[in-house]
Each structure stands twice: as structure tokens, then as C-alpha cells.
Amino acid sequence: MNVSRARLKEANRIVIKVGTSTLAYPQTGKLNLYRIEHLIREIADLHNAGKEIIFVSSGAIAAGIGKMGLPGKPDTVPENQALAAIGQGVLMHIYEKFFAEYGKTMAQLLLTGNDTVDEHARENSRTSLLAILKMGVIPVINENDAVATDEIKIGDNDNLSAMVAAMIDAEVLIILTDIDGVYTGNPKLDSNAKLIDEIPEITPEIEQLAGGAGTKLGTGGMYTKIQAAKIAKAAGVSTLIVKGSESGTLRQCLQGANIGTIFPAY
Fold this sequence. Notes:
Structural class: alpha/beta
CATH class: Alpha Beta
């Protein structure tokens, strides 16, 4: 076990980000309740172990797509905003139900870019989050897609999770996605592509390894995750990019297991 991963055992304040590709079935766009329940149970157990958990979740638009029975994501901003408004309630209802089953209380926060950049709004967001954590409650955060415009949108929850991690002085950011981590090439196209265990410095060459958007349901690809790792690193937060479909992944990460790609902040 290398030093960077060994230090993860000591992390107490942890931001966990989950993408739409992990939460929804790719064939239908509807929520994968089996996977969501296992994820919430694992988060609740980490909370029982004394960890402070901040959960940044995508999936509102996907939940809206499922609720309305649509075949996929619409092309227009107003339609996506409407689906986010519909789906956010669906998603939070599911989360609240599962958290309650494991004896946990959650709090919902919807943020825009202004809430993490503007000094006054950022301080208000930080104060609110710290108060929630002090109460022993698990904050569940999403970008406020229903009202966000291009001027105030962060653009994806990868960057949002990094901004939140920086804002509240988290020690580690874990990004759960549909791929094992950062590869030397596109593993779907290149059979020789190798998983990169650790990226101590985010160079232009590393950024070039990532392409554009990921699945048809999500907004982010590996590029946004690397950008998130850059934001987190600048704030002294280590980042892990790991596959989110396996049960026990979070526990393994925080025990220093050699999975995914780590961007150490030290």
C-alpha cells in the first residue's frame, strides 16, 4: 500500500460524488434501485463509523426521464430544467426512504455556481453545510438544474463536488463513475489501455487522455473528473476516481485498497 492510499484511512470528512451512469440503467434511463440502496447502505455504515459524509448526487434529470416515460434526454434547456424539477423530488424521496431505513437523516441542498464562487454566498453555503454536519445529518447536494442558467451553471456535478470539497475543507473526494479510473487510452476502443494507479501531477498530457461527455444520460466524462481532481488538489483534497457499480467500493477506498485512480493532494 503506497503512502497516498494509506493516508485515506485517516480521512474523516469525505465528499462522495455519484454520477447518473452509476445511478440509472443505460437501457431505459430509469433509476437502478438495487444499486442505489447498496450505495446508501454503505454511506450509512461509514457514517456509523464516525465519518462525516457529504453526498453529491446527479440523477435528477434521469429520474425525471423515468417518471415521464421518455426515451432519453431532451435537447432543449427548458425541457431538461423541467425534468430536473420533476426528478429531483423523485430522487430525494428515494434517498430519504433508504437513509431512514438505516437510521439516518439527510438534508437536501441545491447549489449553483454562484453559491460556490461568490464570497458571500460561498460563506453562507459553507456555514450551512458545517451546521448540518454538526447535527450528524448527511447532506445530499445537487446542482440546481431547474433554475440554473449558462451564467450560473457549474455544468456538471464533478466540478460541483470538488468545489464543495474545497469549501468545507474535506480530506478526500471519491468520484463514483462507470469506469475503473483513468486509463492510458480509451479502454472501450484500445485493448492495450492500462489503468493508471496514481496521478501525482495533472499535466496537459493527462488532460488529453480524457475525452468529452460520457453516457447519453450524464453530462460529464473523464475530462470533467480530471478537472475536478485539479480543483480539489489545489485545495489540499485528494481525489479518487473509481467504478461505482461494485458493492463495498467506498469501504475499500478508505481502507487504502489499490483500486481506481488516486490524485494525491500531498
